[in-house]
Fold these 3 entries.
Entry 1:
Amino acid sequence: MIRDTFARPLRNLRLSVTDRCNLRCAYCMPEEEYAWLPRADILTFEEVARLVDVFASLGVEKVRLTGGEPLLRKDLPRLVKMIAAEPRIRDLAITTNGILLAQEAQALRDAGIQRVTVSLDTLKPDRFRALTRRDAYQQVLEGIEAVSGMGWPGLKLDTVVMRGVNDDEIADLIEFARRMGAELRFIEYMDVGGATRWSMDQVVSRADILERLGERYGRIEVIVEESSAPADRFRLPDGLIFGIISSTTAPFCQTCDRSRLTADGQWLLCLYATAGIDLRKYLRDGTSNGELAGLIRSAWEGRRDRGAEERLLLKDRQPLVQIGELKAKPHLEMHTRGG
Ligand code: SAM
């Protein structure tokens, strides 16, 4: 197990398998047109699997497939099978918007995905259309119901809470998750790349969320657990468990064991990092696995990133990157680096 300068292990890898998405969520992809990564730069499944093996040799045991929308990557179950064949990866998960999930769920499960997280910000079809600029609410619902109906354990729903947009649905979403047998996690609206319309006054904080749920349900219990998971977990008086990912107002950099690999092989040590390490170049120039492991090890051992905590210290917090710079540097986009 290798550790960075704050003794954080390298345990978790988020793999963005494509930068493409079939939604245009206002908080992530507010533009209609984007500059996509060149096709020739996208890592092949063999290249991704090779990197996963190298990361596993350094201690990575959890992999999450993301994007963009990961289910847009053609033949994804084949990649899942290749990663699942690495015995050191003991947790293989996917984060999806759910649009293509109903048709892919069984193949994903058969291939080795253990846990599914679906992003769902609203239960109102009109609001869904306004927020995502696509008419896909029904498909998302069918995707969630498909996973739930399969009795597939570990289903999570992730909701970005925004003031004046969907903060009136907090309890409704909790009740929906209960019906689906899913654990809901509220995510504070983050000032990441892509969120060019972010402002602090739209953030509904963890404290706010707890207060509102407390008014509705009564005393909420904090679940105390040792974990590097991004969500803090809570229990309602009736026993229902939910989570809050408070990256904006109460970041958890101190326990962050995550790094990210973009679909074209840029390795990022922090969600807020402005530059990554180009692993594609090494994959394609004959560098051996041992040399790759050495490169990754020395980068991790020098890691000092604590991006979300640094953002918290800013007095006048504005969007991380302005739209002009994002267009010139697509690797700064959330949909490129994988949320
Ligand atoms: N397409 C997949 C999905 O929708 O889940 C995976 C990629 S998406 C970028 C991953 C997660 O990032 C989603 O749950 C999304 O809501 C979240 N996200 C994107 N922009 C965000 C922002 N500005 N603040 C908080 N979460 C954000």
Note: DSSP finds twelve helices and twelve strands in the chain.
Entry 2:
Amino acid sequence: MKILVLNGPNLNLLGLREPQIYGKQNYAALVAFLEQSAKEEGLEIECFQSNHEGVLVDRIQAAYGVFDGIVINPAAYTHTSVALLDALKAVSLPAVEVHLSDVSLREDFRQISYVRQACPRTIMGQGFEGYRLALLFLKEYLEKN
Ligand code: DQA
């Protein structure tokens, strides 16, 4: 099973960026954590981060026929991007929406998620662990479907 893990804008600044919200570990630590989690579950993963909406759309499109599922933290694009929602719907791959923080407890503008409509599961507020749970969800989901 091949899973694409996409991270959106400013997640490259993990560790530096509002550590009281997003934690002290950096993006490289997140990738290392994901690779270890994937290895333990026998999954193949590719991690990719971009600050650019269109680049993320391109990666979702390119996942068609190559990956079996997508884990996506669209970051700020969660709350603005119909393009990411449409791309996920277009490729119709099972996708899990992940947020490090619990966006449900934050500002009003974070209460909208466009991509959620294309994701059978959303995981928030669990830090890095949320990504591991997303991989586990996809593994079980793919085994059943
Ligand atoms: C985030 C939450 C978003 O609201 C925010 O814009 C981010 C990160 C999270 O992981 O908690 O950049 O997706």
Note: The mean pLDDT is 98.
Entry 3:
Amino acid sequence: MKQNTIDSLKKFEGKEVTLAGWLYNSRASGKILFLIIRDGTGLCQCVVEKGNVSDELFEQLKHLGQESSLTVTGAVRADERSVGGYELAVTAAQIIGPAQDYPITPKSHGIDFLLKNRHLHLRSHRQWCIGKVRHTVVDAIRRFFNDNGFILIDTPIFTTAVGEDQQSLFEVDYFGSPMHLTQTGQLYLESAAMSYGKVYCFGPTFRAEKSKTRRHLTEFWMVEPEVAFTDLDGLLELAENFVSFIVAQVLDKNRSELEALESDISALEAIKPPFYRLTYTEAAEILTGPKAQQFLAEELKQLQEQKKQIEQRITELETKQAGQIKQWQKDPRRFASQSEAAGAADLIELRGELAEVDIKIENNPKHAQLAAEFRWGKDLGGSDETIISHMHDKPIFVTHYPKQAKAFYMKIDRENEKVVLNFDLLAPKGFGEIIGGSVREDDYNRLVERIREHDLNPETYDWYLDLRKYGSVPHGGFGLGVERTVAWITGEQHIRQCIPFPRMMDKVYI
Ligand code: 4AD
Ligand code: MG
């Protein structure tokens, strides 16, 4: 089959093209049919006028079900009222695979229904936009490291040593012996860093975390760079340049998707180094001081206001959907702006947003209590991160956590032995952690001690300890979660929408 793609229509203005795709939406107005076709590269309005095609084909197209596949042929003409700016004056069409009663209709569906139908929901405009952004994020990750002298190391998925913590291991039966799925490629990566200097691994990661939050998946993608001869400042600089590059690439390549997703583009444009730097101790002071409580009280007010606005928008959209048909009868060419085409999907999303806001309203007093009760020594919880991150408009590094709150491999700060040389990077405006990283303990004896303190067996780590025996160097790295990064950039509330087939603690749908 030879066809053109919607994203290249601009080059064919005035010429005849054939598109192959699926019927996204359609309307009939007497002698004219408006078909919105999607082909994977975009949406295009295709206008079929009676007389330009056979009566039989006209009738077939008129009754064609949503998501039927077809080809359409016609001349390209510019029309700014049309989705994408161009439309097709159809002269021929061929139905390829008819679809009847497509389950995801423009009426509202709950998230459970959509996840059950994930294989179909991936075709929705919103999911399509998120998928495009994810593609750019992944591409930017590889590009950044490949262009900056890092060597890709594919670390194993079956692992023998605990990489992060014992509680979140997925155990598998490996020919009768216990083995687990990787929580991090870091330990293996450290050995490769002693070979190449700068390395990274990028792949799926597994955590049996009993967390049903919007930030947790049991299978997620993580990229981890590891650098020999570096220190905490070097790592922070690498992380801020890296994250800024990813955001710049998305802004460059996915502006229309970001617009359709209603992401905060101007906030993204401000993501440039330097990021904010706070120590854990400073963060703890903010949490237990008056600022956090003031912030939460203010947040509650805003949430209640937001709830009102969403409810209003839902009512408006519901009325608009009914009204649109009338309006369109007056001016049939003015079919669908991007937002109108996505109107039905918006309604679904809005109901989802309303549910999220309700949860936030419910959680607000609990978070206030948690912040007030925060004590130095604890790891920052999700709600603590949210508070700190809400107070900033750019990403925030939180450094120097208490050693008892963090993994065994983190290097103890020789100037203050209560803390480790680590950092988390919190995405701003309430999103929370997207990166965790540290300088690694490079002293053999101290590392053995730390392994024991964590109730782990030094014998399992003999190869890892060897790195401290044969030419140990100061080194470190970090891990960035892909789904969390995509969720932050797109403004998506829940990271489950940012991976094609999400695996959550409570449910794996398909
Ligand atoms: O902070 P974490 O646990 O760090 C590590 O795994 C280190 N070994 C990385 C390193 O230093 N090489 O995880 C890193 C990032 C988090 O900041 C988060 O973005 C993501 O991985 N992440 C998750 N994403 C989704 N679901 C989960 N359950 C996640 N757990 C961590
Ligand atoms: Mg972490």
Note: Residues 424, 433, 436 surround magnesium ion (ligand 2) (CB under 6 Å).
